[in-house]
Design goal:
Layout: H1 2-32, E1 44-48, H2 80-87, H3 138-148, E2 158-162, H4 165-173, H5 180-207, E3 213-216, H6 225-228, H7 231-258, E4 264-266, H8 268-282, E5 285-286, E6 293-294, H9 303-307, H10 322-325, H11 338-352
Helix pairs in contact: 2-11, 3-5, 4-5, 5-7
């Protein structure tokens, strides 16, 4: 009798393994059918902060200086996602159909694919000019998108998330620098919360049918003009950027187990560090096979930002010459210049084309 049970158990085990093999084969075939073909991308949607904002403040009044478009780059410039949109023949326009209540400077009149808003954090009140302007958080952006879209019906859509720096800046601004232990704890708490929120929003998009998601990590914040001139701030900024990126990577990889999918991570940190280090050591960085050259990674192109660190490019009235702007890495103390964004776009485009 025991022998019969053993034989039966052996057959059941072999049959079970055979069925599992068929299921895995089917699953892999099913997943491969969703491999991204850049030529067949239907739409590219963006979520994030000023680094991806293509004009959330369009239709603003009495806020953006005359002659300066409402994006956080050097004059007449654009963020990287704008150029990526051009590369894939998908114009990138801002979306503010459902702005947070009380945004007197944001009229719900635009319906583009870019939900990113300057000053946004992942899931709380962002850096704006309360009570008049409060940018929608990443959570709000994704919620607004999913309220009006069905990703499951468009498997060739691409979704790009780039956010987190303002969560760290907000922690720094809200904690006295004279209390280093408290400051360190506040930043670490913000990093944990931000990366957890990004993980949750990727999950929300995936469960609604999104199959091609790119998450961009943080550049070395200590190398921005706002921190680079202070040894302690430079160390703090770069250390916390690294901590953020490590947690982000771990949480994105963990999604493979929880939802069966892990988004692709574009390592902008390594690219940015290469640019800054090359400028500092060789005197200039030139993007291969282009005329894009950067020579100044220390001072912002906005002259107002040099005298008042709180002034951003979107508020700037006085700039270095147009020729010099094209050579500066930074537009203000935290935001990249148009030239830098163009270089970032080239690498992001190349990265997207490698996604399987």
């Amino acid at each position: 009798m025991r022998s019969n049970y053993n034989q039966l158990g052996g057959r059941m085990k072999r049959n079970t393994l055979y069925i599992i093999g068929i299921m895995l084969s089917t699953l892999l075939s099913f997943q491969s059918s969703f491999a991204l073909n850049p030529a067949q991308i239907d739409h590219v949607y963006y979520f994030g902060d000023s680094l991806s904002d293509t004009g959330y403040l369009n239709h603003s009044s009495n806020y953006v200086p005359e002659g300066q478009q409402p994006v956080y780059t050097t004059p007449l410039g654009h963020p990287a996602v704008f150029y990526v949109g051009q590369a894939f023949n998908h114009p990138t326009l801002p979306n503010n159909l459902n702005p947070p209540s009380g945004n007197e400077w944001v009229i719900g009149a635009l319906g583009g694919d870019d939900y990113a808003a300057g000053g946004a954090v992942t899931d709380s009140i962002g850096l704006g000019k309360p009570p008049f302007y409060s940018p929608p958080s990443l959570h709000q952006q994704v919620f607004n998108f999913l309220s009006t879209h069905q990703p499951r019906l468009h498997p060739n859509n691409l979704y790009v998330i780039w956010i987190g720096a303002n969560d760290i800046f907000k922690a720094i601004r809200s904690t006295p620098s004279s209390e280093p232990l408290r400051l360190n704890a506040a930043i670490n708490k913000a990093i944990t919360a931000a990366t957890t929120t990004i993980q949750a929003e990727v999950t929300a998009l995936y469960k609604r049918g999104a199959r091609h998601i790119v998450v961009i990590n943080l550049p070395p914040m200590g190398d921005t003009p706002s921190m680079s001139k202070s040894t302690s701030l430079k160390l703090l900024g770069n250390m916390k950027s690294k901590k953020f990126n490590t947690q982000l990577l771990v949480k994105m990889l963990s999604l493979k187990k929880s939802i069966g999918y892990s988004p692709d991570i574009f390592n902008v940190n390594a690219l940015f560090k290469k640019i800054i280090d090359t400028v500092n050591t060789a005197g200039e960085y030139q993007e291969p096979n282009t005329a894009l050259i950067l020579k100044n990674g220390t001072d912002p192109a906005c002259l107002d930002s040099r005298t008042n660190p709180a002034i951003m490019s979107i508020d700037c009235n006085h700039w270095v010459s147009t020729d010099q702007q094209a050579l500066d890495v930074f537009a203000d103390n935290v935001h990249p210049s148009d030239t830098t964004h163009q270089i970032l776009a080239i690498h992001l485009e190349q990265f997207i084309k490698t996604i399987k």
